[in-house]
Amino acid sequence: MFVPRPEGGFTQLLAWSRRILLTKPSAEGRAGLSAQTDMACCAQPDDAELVAVEAFNVNLQPEGQVKIDELTQQVSTMKEQLEKRDAEMEKQGTAIELQAVQIKQLKAQCETALSMAQEAAPAVEWGCLTQQQKFMVQFLFVLVFSVIAVPLPLLIPINDPNLGALGNMSFFYGYNIFVIVYYLPGQYRRLELLLVRPADGKEMARSSSAISYLGKVTWQDTAKRVIFYLLVIFGWCTGYFLCAVPWGTNLIYSYNMLYGAPPTFAMVDWLFLVLADRSYWNVKTLILIFAYNFLTLAPVLLLCGIVFASAFFNTPVLILCAALASWILMEVVGIVSDKVLQILIPWAGYSLEHYYQVGNSLVFSCLLTFSEVILFPSTNSWWALVGVVIVDTIGAALQLRVLWKCVVSDRSKGEGISQETREALWSQCEVDVARFWPVLVALPPLIWLMDDRNPNRQYYYLFDCTTAEHMNITVVCILVKLGWTCALTTVDVVLCTSWGIGLERAKQLMKMYDKHWVMMTATFALSGALFTSCWLVKHDGLRLLEVLSEC
């Protein structure tokens, strides 16, 4: 066998062998070494190499040959050990890769389990309440406060209207305080939604409360704003009193109060800008707020006129048509209000993004429901109930018709529930709520006004002639209207569910209670106070009807 002798003699051969033993060759190195060995074995040596090898063999034998054989054996053994070690390392690498895959799977399972646990765990709001518990608290607050708030002004002692403004200070600084306290939270919340800048699309106040301007500030700012709130209340009562001073002791001049109400309420709305940034202080904003104020409060006077006319003439035809006339009036006012505001809001530099949440449908429907409920005791006729049922049915049918058009449009586009449908659902929820709550809110004060034990009963034109028979008719009519309202709401829910928007309707209702529950409560309380204990339903505000009345 011919073995190529490395340059440098046997000493370099030993060094080369030791390097092989101590160094782990890479896969490429082993491949290259094997190739070189094969080439060395397969290559035909020339004469000089053969002479060198023979001389080397002669010099090495016999002791040199033995050492080379031992060295070769050791190299072969180390090669086998290296191969075994490589196999073990490959096996360990495979095991590590498998463990890495298992760790990734376990991590994914943990993340999935954590997300499921978070979804299963109820979200906590208001510190300790779940979303369902929070909704129930808001629901109960709307019910309890609305029912209690409306009869409270009826407990204020009222003097003889012939004593004039100075003789009725309890009216201006008693009942009117209740009115402005009910008015401010709801109206200021609506103004927050009305005055939204288009640049960022964000509300002036992010909180869901109607008095959100009191939150997320330092205690010094909070104290200043509370003082501002109290000054607004006192200032409005004083301004309204000054408007009624010319009244004197002559009831005919009591209409000065009627003329003084719009500007004083507009001043209260303008004072909201004091809480806002100075960038909102401009003439366009003042015009926008005044227009919104007028369009919101003007229907109250017209509705009262319809109720008073039906109560005075007391004929079946007029009573039957009174509810229809009231509904037509509110629909016209609502349409005109939307058209005007959708022009004025962009003109004043604000966005219409949150306009659908301002609550116009809630306000108008609430006023309409109170006017319908007041028809029952004031006319002492079942015709009022018939007219109310017909009007409520027509109104519900028209709402569903608008909603069905939105659903058909969404299906034709195939893009899911559109923003237009969500806004229509929001409006429908406002109408349903406004048809339900005022009936419950109005029942206690109406019963109290018709009770002979009420010392203030003699000063209310609509109730000073009522008897026990009126009370029975009123209670029955209110219960029937409540039942019919529940039936119409049930039909709405069933149809919306069959159209595939039942879940979205529930979400809109939950959102309305969550975002605007204080505004809803204030609206119900204010409307109830206006229609059951306001100056408009007293003799001092209805001189003509008092003269013509047979009572």
Written description of the protein model:
The chain has 551 residues and is an all-alpha fold. It has 2 domains: 10-89, no CATH class; 122-548, no CATH class. It is 73% helix and 1% strand. It has a two-stranded antiparallel sheet with strand order 1-2. A hairpin with a 3-residue loop joins strand 1 and strand 2 (129-130). The protein is elongated, with a radius of gyration of 44 Å.
Secondary structure topology:
Elements: H1 10-22, H2 27-42, H3 47-60, H4 63-120, E1 124-125, E2 129-130, H5 131-149, H6 169-194, H7 219-244, H8 255-270, H9 283-313, H10 316-347, H11 360-379, H12 383-413, H13 419-449, H14 468-498, H15 502-533, H16 543-548
Antiparallel strand pairs: 1-2
Helix pairs in contact: 1-4, 5-13, 5-15, 6-7, 6-15, 7-8, 8-9, 9-10, 9-11, 10-11, 10-12, 11-13, 11-14, 11-15, 12-13, 12-14, 13-14, 13-15
